[in-house]
Amino acid sequence: MKESEKMNSENKELLGKLSRTQYYKFIKYALGVECFIDNETENVRIKDKTDESPQLSDKGKLAKTVAYKYINNKLIDVFTVSEEDYKNKTFRNQEDQSFSAYKYFETLDQDFLWFILIGSLDPKTYRLSDVSEKKIDGFAYFENKKRQITSFILGAGVNHDFGIGNWYHLICKMRNEILSIVKLHPRLRFNPKYLFDSLMRLEKSLLNTNYIAPQILKDLNFTKYEETLYHCLYQKFDIDKVSKTKNFNIDDTNLYQLARICDTQRKLAKKKISILTFNYDNVLELIFKNNFYNTNINSTYRYSRRPVGPVDVDIVHSHGYFPYATPPFQSKSYSIVLSSYEYMKMYKLTTSYARKKLHDQLDNTNILIGNSLSDYEEQKVFYARRESDPSVFHFIFTIWNQEKWHNMYRTLYYSKMNVIPVFFDDFKLMNNFLKSL
């Protein structure tokens, strides 16, 4: 491990507050971070479970196995914590060698260690006002791992420069369409305002970003549903922006830079590049088509056919696909996942298309950009992988926001999902950084 100052008093205090179960989690995650930082290769792993049953030597004492260390899929070490270890804040390897958590982890970056400790604590045991504000320096860790970046996971934020409508406006538009249909329907005696208020209350009671309005509109009038979806996606979209013009510098958009990186990467690696997106639009495909002419693109969604000929970049729309078409409205949606019902249907089985594609994408070290991981079902896929292998991390490129950091990035992305935020003060700085890759 790299040289650093001794564990600071704040981290010592947090370490002392951990319950036994929280201490188990802390040791496992901290060992995972150590593996992640210290090893350039992909062959060192800290895992949660193993099919093997090694004989543990803890001088006959009952001990909890917290992690297994592998090199090239060969079991190298086993780490345990006994009741005495918990009280003394120590842990042991399979040779029964005892390590002080205070001493062993003091060489880790202390801000990084703080995040691990906070992530191990039960949120009910502390208030946000009780802990200091910290912004992790994700650049240092990304610089160490960027050579292993092989794929992207994209969210709606990457479409900001092209005027693609966001999720909130889409849902509001669908609610209003429902109210319009109800007002005109002679047999429906619902009070429109009461219906709208009921929708809002019910949607707020659901987890995260799942909604029922899309399903209601789809059942009432499928044509209006598709028209609304298309209108919200492409009303402000300018097709001329996907190519280099005098009036618009496409180089300054994050989506173009991602396309450039993937095109360069597939030429150097000489293998197919995979991009997972939760977005329904095909702006990325249009950018490839209009700027990287020799790159063969395939858009994949749930029921898409296999492409004819070789594919250089596979863009996987795990929640469906609704490509742009020249007005008037001509396009059709494919396997769109939008409502609560559709989310549950798509994610409840481990073999579901959306879950499988996300799981497959996580086999590589990824950059997440666009902040589309606030959905509970997607979080579960990340969390399951974190639990099985805490030495695997991913990165999210995002804009620094102090309130969001506490509410989402720290507690959700880092603590639960092993996603390290790489913060930028604005989108322009993020774009400049992408240009440098």
Report on the structure:
The chain is of the alpha/beta class and 437 residues long. The chain is 44% helix and 15% strand. It has helices at 9-17, 20-38, 83-88, 101-104, 110-120, 138-145, 167-184, 192-205, 213-220, 222-234, 254-269, 283-291, 340-347, 353-361, 376-388, 402-417, 427-436, and strands at 44-47, 63-71, 74-82, 90-92, 98-100, 149-154, 273-277, 297-300, 313-317, 365-369, 394-399, 419-424. It has a 7-stranded parallel beta sheet, with helices on both faces. β4 and β5 (98-100) form a beta hairpin. α15 crosses α16. It is globular. The mean pLDDT is 82.
Short structural summary:
With 437 residues, this protein is of the alpha/beta class. It has helices at 9-17, 20-38, 83-88, 101-104, 110-120, 138-145, 167-184, 192-205, 213-220, 222-234, 254-269, 283-291, 340-347, 353-361, 376-388, 402-417, 427-436; strands at residues 44-47, 63-71, 74-82, 90-92, 98-100, 149-154, 273-277, 297-300, 313-317, 365-369, 394-399, 419-424.
Helical coverage, percent range: 40-55%
CA gyration radius, whole angstroms? 24 Å
Instruction: State the separation between the terminal residues, measured CA to CA.
Output: 27 Å
Count of alpha and pi helical runs: 17
Strand content: 5-15%
Q: How would you sum up the major sheet?
A: 7 strands, parallel
Structural class, from secondary structure content?
alpha/beta
Shape: globular
Residue ranges: pLDDT <50 for 5 or more in a row? none
Strand and helix order: HHEEEHEEHHHEHHHHHEHEEHHEHEHEH
